[in-house]
Design goal:
Elements (H helix, E strand, L loop, with lengths): L3 H19 L2 E2 L9 H6 L11 E2 L2 E2 L5 H18 L3 E3 L5 H12 L5 E4 L15 H5 L2 E4 L2 E2 L4 E2 L1 H11 L3 E5 L9 H10 L3 E5 L4 H5 L6 H4 L3 E5 L10 E5 L6 H18 L5 H38 L3 E2 L11 E5 L5 H10 L2 E2 L1 E3 L12 E5 L1 H5 L4 H16 L4 H12 L23
Parallel strand pairs: 1-15, 5-6, 5-9, 9-10, 10-11
Antiparallel strand pairs: 2-3, 4-12, 7-8, 11-12, 13-14, 14-17, 16-17
Helix pairs in contact: 3-11, 4-10, 6-7, 11-14
Bound molecules: pyridoxal-5'-phosphate.
The site of pyridoxal-5'-phosphate has 15 residues, from helix 4.
Length: 431
């Protein structure tokens, strides 16, 4: 047993990580925690299996039960997004985006996107997945005050450059994008509108954000572990029906982009957990999404009252799960470290005008996980006070951390998920 201690070391660190999060305020906007029923799927036999292809049309045998699972996952996904096409195979949001780029654009062709400084995700940036496809990225103009794509400028840009794709992918996503206008312009020049809903998938499914497929998006990708609190993974949905040859070919290309394009094994245990997360979101998603947004608005308002520079003031700070703070030129990293030492987990983030993504000037905050553990508007007001103590009054991080541990004691249970058979479930414990 020469190497057992190494395995024990890893277990110890995982337990430390559980304890750390148990006693902290998890406020990273893209993070969430898994329900007990979803988590159970991750340790089933499905984990070790392969299923290339689609239900009933497999390269490998042994898939008869998984076929039923994947079919159900697609059926629930279509219900959740009220659409006619769903692919639950992408193993991440980034993988879903790569599949779409593989399907709908060729190397060297132009696509219009947001800039990283204005909240785009790296997968549509020149250093990320888009660069693997070698496409020509052209940036939308941005309106800092409204924290949104400048509609008129973007429409003009689309008409001028005639891109293959108009992309909408935002990691800082305070307000809905002007999809109707962008889609109209895109369709006029024969481009598709791609809506990357990674962050806001759960808000859309909970009917509390915009409805991209109704507003003109041709295809929507997303991560299944952000505001939609399922397992790590991605998905693609569309409301194209495949009722003409051209449309059939569009959907066939999307499917081919996923497999064999960018997946082989697509993590069958995650597909099962996705299906359960969809069922839970159909049941609880509306109430969950509502509370997430209320909490973000309350947090933003309170932080503003305590003297923080909160973006989007003119429009009520936020209509999503996020809050964006300006901290001071290049000061984002220092602030996020100070918060971590105080027991608050966030991330530094670029704000409009930032040139250096490694030394950004802001902090991005999110309420999905705080909401999931039962916090409401009152708790957001208390959290704003912790921020003031840590960042403005510069109180001892050690003392704040102790107070936060105490504050968190009443919030250790998961909400908005099925608990049948899991009374008293402690999601911070290993199996
Ligand atoms: C998080 C994010 C992704 C990537 O998703 P992963 O599941 O982490 O690969 C893609 N696009 C946007 C806009 C994101 O915020």
């Amino acid at each position: 047993m020469k190497w057992y201690n190494e395995a024990e070391y890893i277990r110890k660190q995982a337990m430390n990580n559980n304890q750390f999060f148990k006693n902290s305020l998890p406020m990273i906007a893209s993070e969430n925690v898994l329900s007990p029923l979803c988590r159970e799927m991750l340790i089933t036999d499905l984990h070790g299996r392969y299923a290339e292809g689609t239900p009933g049309n497999r390269y490998y045998e042994g898939c008869k039960f998984f076929d039923l699972i994947e079919e159900k996952a697609m059926e629930l996904a279509k219900k959740l997004f009220n659409c006619s096409y769903a692919d639950v195979r992408p193993t991440a949001g980034t993988t879903a985006n790569m599949a779409i780029l593989k399907a709908l654009i060729k190397p060297g062709e132009p696509a219009v996107v947001l800039d990283l400084a204005n909240g785009a995700h790296i997968s549509f940036g020149k250093w990320g997945a888009a660069s693997v496809r070698g496409i020509d990225l052209i940036s939308y103009p941005f309106n800092d005050e409204e924290m949104n794509i400048d509609v008129d400028g973007a429409v003009k840009l689309i008409k001028k450059v005639k891109p293959k794709l108009a992309l909408n992918g935002r990691s800082v996503f305070l307000f809905p994008s002007p999809i109707k206008e962008l889609a109209e312009a895109a369709h006029e020049v024969g481009a598709y509108l791609v809506y990357d809903a990674a962050h806001v998938l759960g808000l859309i499914a909970g009917k509390q954000f915009q409805d991209p497929l109704r507003e003109g998006a041709d295809v929507m990708s997303g991560s299944t572990h952000k505001t939609l609190p399922g397992p790590q993974g991605g998905m693609i949905v569309s409301n194209h029906k495949g009722d003409t040859d051209h449309d059939k070919s569009f959907l066939r290309k999307l499917g081919f982009g996923v497999f064999p394009g960018v997946t082989s094994s697509y993590h069958l245990h995650h597909v099962a957990a996705k299906a359960i997360a969809f069922a839970e979101h159909l049941e609880f998603g509306e109430a969950y999404a509502k509370q997430i947004i209320k909490n973000a608005q309350s947090l933003a308002q309170s932080l503003h009252q305590h003297g923080f520079n909160v973006y989007g003031e003119k429009l009520g700070f936020t209509k999503s799960h996020q809050v964006l703070l300006g901290i001071g030129p290049g000061k984002g990293k220092e602030a996020s470290k100070l918060l971590e030492d105080s027991g608050i987990v966030t991330n530094m983030n670029t704000i409009p005008g930032d040139q250096d993504p490694l030394n950004p000037s802001g902090l991005r905050l999110g309420t999905p996980e705080l909401t999931r553990i039962g916090m409401k508007e009152n708790e957001m007001e208390e959290i704003a006070v912790f921020f003031e103590r840590a960042l403005l009054k510069k109180e001892s991080a050690k003392k704040i951390k102790e107070d936060i541990k105490e504050f968190r004691k009443d919030f250790q249970e998961l909400h908005y998920c099925f608990k049948e058979g899991f009374r008293g479930y402690d999601y911070h414990k290993l199996i």
